[in-house]
Design goal:
It is a single chain. By secondary structure, the chain is an alpha+beta fold. Helix content is 29%, strand content 27%. The chain is built from six helices and eight strands, in the order H-E-E-H-H-E-E-E-H-H-E-E-E-H. Strand 6 and strand 7 form a beta hairpin. The protein is flat, with a radius of gyration of 21 Å.
């Protein structure tokens, strides 16, 4: 399946900044051949009665590159997507086989969990709604500008309890090499410390409570995307606030970040 995504033009200042900081090769989304690989499953363990209305459902839909970049770069992008979306144990397989294996693991683990729960509970009634587990994973390319390819992974999961969990992760790639770009590739060590302060200041100003952030800037290496003249950092539920706060983002102007960036990154 091919997707058409509207191009967003970056201001000249951002174009120059990224070119200097990252040494990218220009590309657009139209240059890329994109395929969708998907599969799904609904399983009802044999040990439960159909009247219990218990089932496990999983759906996976991920986009991968089929052309427009070198074979080596496409493989690097593919492997990173599989690692982040599914897990490093599935690297080395084709996308279809990786998804198939992931779903098979889901089925095996779900059936085993229900069997153990049923055995421990006995013949008494049990809260069947908590055993209707589900998982959805969706991945798409959202932009390709100035040699930076951006990919979004959205996942949601329910495995019992009051509510499920969901979140999104953004991956940024060098279109020349397929290398996954992290904040440590863009910012100097001192710059990352300053960035850490800037982000915490913005989060504090919005009243967020820092559930898991450490005192060191290593947590900056993950979830961000470049949007026009800003870099947007994304935080999922429980990362900087409670579940009800949802997905939180902080946008910082490139003009403020430019002094923090490396000048000759590979």
């Amino acid at each position: 399946m091919f997707v058409v995504i509207m191009k967003k033009l970056f201001p000249l200042a951002l174009l120059a900044l990224i070119a200097i900081a990252c040494g990218r090769t220009p590309a657009t989304i139209e240059d890329l051949s994109i395929i969708n690989v998907s599969d799904s499953l609904e399983v009802t363990p044999d040990i439960v009665s159909p009247d219990d209305e218990i089932a496990g459902t999983i759906s996976i839909s991920l986009e991968f590159l089929d052309g427009g970049m070198s074979a080596r770069a496409r493989k690097a992008v593919r492997d990173s997507i599989i690692v982040i979306a599914l897990g490093d144990e599935f690297v080395g397989r084709t996308p279809a086989k990786a998804i198939e294996s992931y779903i098979a693991n889901f089925e095996e683990n779900y059936v085993k969990e229900i069997e153990e729960f049923k055995a421990n509970w006995g013949d008494d009634d049990f809260p069947s709604f908590t055993l209707n587990h589900s998982e959805d994973i969706y991945g798409e390319f959202i932009s390709c500008e100035n040699g930076l390819l951006c990919y979004r992974i959205f996942s949601s999961e329910y495995s019992g309890g009051a509510h499920g969990i969901y979140g999104e992760i953004y991956l940024n790639f060098d279109t020349k090499t397929g290398k996954l770009i992290r904040a440590s590739d863009l910012f100097t060590e001192d710059g990352r410390e300053t960035l850490d302060y800037m982000l915490k200041r913005e989060l504090e100003s919005e009243g967020h409570t820092f559930w898991t952030l450490s005192d060191t800037p290593e947590w900056l290496d993950g979830n961000f995307k470049i949007v026009r003249d800003t870099v947007e950092f994304i935080y999922n539920p429980y990362e900087v606030d409670c579940y009800a706060a949802g997905i939180i983002s902080v946008c910082l102007p490139v003009s403020e970040l430019a002094p923090l960036m490396k000048k000759n990154s590979n």
